[in-house]
Description:
13 helices, alpha+beta, four-stranded antiparallel sheet, 33% helix
Amino acid sequence: MSPPKKMKTENAGLARRITPVLAEELTRTSIELQWVFVADIVDKKATSRLIQQLSVEFPLPTLQHLKRVRSEPKGKSSALSVILCNADDLEAAAERDSVRLKDLVEGCAVSVECLGNLCRRRVPASAPLTRAQYCEATKYWPTMFHEDKRLEKLLRGDCFDDKEALRIETHMREAVSIARRSLGDTVVGAVIVDPETDEVVAMACDCRHGNHPLHHAVSVCVDLVARSQGGGAFDFESISTELPSNVEGGEATSLFYKNRHNVSNLATNTEAHKGRAKLADKSLDRSALKTPYLCTGYDLYVTHEPDIMSAMALLHSRIRRVFYGCSTAYGALGSFYKLHLQPGLNHHFEVFKGVLEDECKSIKRGDRELEPCKQICT
């Protein structure tokens, strides 16, 4: 019984090493605070009336995530306090320190006789986005929070079970294997997979040599998918006939022809795209298309973090998820930039890093170890 337990432990460790690339505001636990004026409520029966009056006289448009009233234990009973207004609404710091309750509500329709001591207090300046931020925020003032269960799983690192983690590792090994066939001095491999069927749709290595500076592994993979749908722009025949001397022509030729042939078979069979529609980006109208657009619903496995050009190709092709092995100095999906998280773009996708990181960092082609990319020092 011990071997299965050991394998399960190893798979669990693999799942923990698959790290989501999230926005910085989601990964930090600290919160930004701001000053407000708070007063004790001496007549609890007047609480509802006070809230109505303050909502009219002192609205808090930037603090809608906060509850207006706070209950604090006081002996055997509880004491209530209420946020009156944002302290920043008053002009000078000296004025904020010396203001009196009577001066603050003068001329306002607020039942001042129901209020007690006035003080300044720090409260969360914005709504918490994660449970960790929510726990921190409630230390200062009661805060409203709606948990995103998917996000919490990503933050905990348990978004993949053992079976999924093993499948992710398997596809990354395919990317590592094909990377060894790269044509130039940059060794990168990429594999596009349909997660509904777990079938490889396209796979490619880096083809930047000679007159093909744009043929990154990711770009070639996307082009192969486009070719499966009757498109495609790259000329693979010219690539296979212009191989550098250190690559065997037969191996490289079979690589491109083999993958193009497999993808072409998928193109004539619309059943191969079954299930992709429900994974599609809902903002994209496909009423006139027989199949979803390009890489919609597909996952990419790539040995190295894509650069800006490749990341934009993935965004345009509507990729579903990206898994990469190791970070690169000018990577656009976590290191130098986080393109997939930019709010102004019309498509967003999930990104995970660290899959077989050590193997991706030290890929070899033949007997000669090459420098894959300029890697991040961690």
